[in-house]
Automatic annotation (TrEMBL):
Chain sites annotated for binding substrate: N190, P191, P192, Y193
Name by which UniProt lists this protein: Release factor glutamine methyltransferase
GO biological process, one term: methylation
MF terms in GO: nucleic acid binding; peptide chain release factor N(5)-glutamine methyltransferase activity
HAMAP family the record matches: RF_methyltr_PrmC
Methyltransferase small domain location: 112-198
Species annotation: Alkalibacterium thalassium
EC supergroup of this enzyme: transferase
């Protein structure tokens, strides 16, 4: 079956059936067919169901066919469509930014529920597309949010997302905290944490289409945790919080790094819905900066 084997005059339902088969034949997930159609045309699931017996326009068919071909070649559907959803909002993503994962959304939701109502100063390290910083600001407009990244291309995407959603976030180009001043009540980070030794275990679409800068870290994936553990004691306010994502095999190592950096704090591992170690929560910080 080639990309041209289907007739643009077929109904939406028939086109989806063809696209699912075409993706499966190319060893891609069949569900991508519906996901791409909804994302490409800004349709809801209700729209998709109600239009199954209708036909795509010529322009829609051309765009959809091209999108499915790109997905069949391995490009992530989020990049093909140009966005991924995070906490109920569509964020622009590009090859310069990491695609947000559901596991990140889990711990984001968890920490939001535990914060006090008072205004906080928040720092997002390695913001990428800005999903954490922008989502936090929209959920807690009283907070002052700063977001940093070493990649100017990623920062351009993050600024675009903030502008599109009306989030007042201060973005800054910085290698971790190198250019950061002031103090903070909450620090968030989903840094690069994959070791080069794990490259063979990764999905080819991630390796081929997502930015290496946002994926891999030296020192068995622990490089950025050690840099943050060294820098954050001088930046944290009393009773502040630090929440970091890490790889599911790194929990105890990251925990030990931050127990040494914050010996008086509570350092706790959070698991994700799959039962894997996923995030570290450092709280009750009480030490001299």
């Amino acid at each position: 079956m080639s990309i041209n084997d289907t007739d643009p005059k077929k109904t939406v339902g028939e086109v989806l059936k063809w696209a699912s088969s075409f993706l499966k034949m190319n060893r891609r997930e069949p569900y991508i067919a519906e996901w791409v159609m909804k994302g490409l045309f800004s349709w809801t699931i209700t729209d998709l169901l109600s239009r199954r017996q209708t036909h795509l326009t010529e322009e829609q068919w051309t765009a959809y066919k091209q999108a499915i071909e790109e997905c069949a070649d391995g490009r992530p559907p989020q990049q093909v469509v140009g966005h991924e959803w995070f906490y109920g909002r569509p964020f622009t993503v590009t090859p310069d930014t990491l695609i947000p994962r559901p596991e990140t959304e889990e711990w984001f939701h968890r920490y939001l529920k535990m914060l006090p109502e008072k205004a906080l100063k928040v720092l997002d390290i390695g913001t990428g597309s800005g999903v954490l910083a922008v989502s936090h600001k929209l959920e807690r407009p009283q907070d002052k949010v700063t977001a940093v990244d070493i990649s100017p291309e990623a920062l351009a995407v993050a600024r675009k997302n903030a502008w599109n959603m009306g989030a007042d976030v201060n973005f800054m180009e910085s290698d971790v905290t190198e250019k950061v001043t002031g103090s903070f009540d909450l620090v968030l980070s989903n840094p690069p944490y994959i070791s080069q030794n794990e490259r063979s275990e990764m999905d080819e679409s991630v390796l081929n289409f997502e930015p290496q800068l946002a994926l891999f870290a030296d020192d068995e994936g622990l490089y950025f945790y050690k840099k943050m553990a060294e820098a954050l004691p001088r930046l944290m306010n009393k009773d502040g919080h630090i929440i970091l994502e890490y790889g599911y095999r790194q929990g105890e190592q990251v925990k030990a790094i931050f127990e040494q950096a914050f010996p008086e704090a509570d350092v706790v591992i959070w698991k994700d819905m799959s039962g894997h170690d996923r995030a570290l929560h450092v709280s009750h910080i009480d030490q001299e900066r």
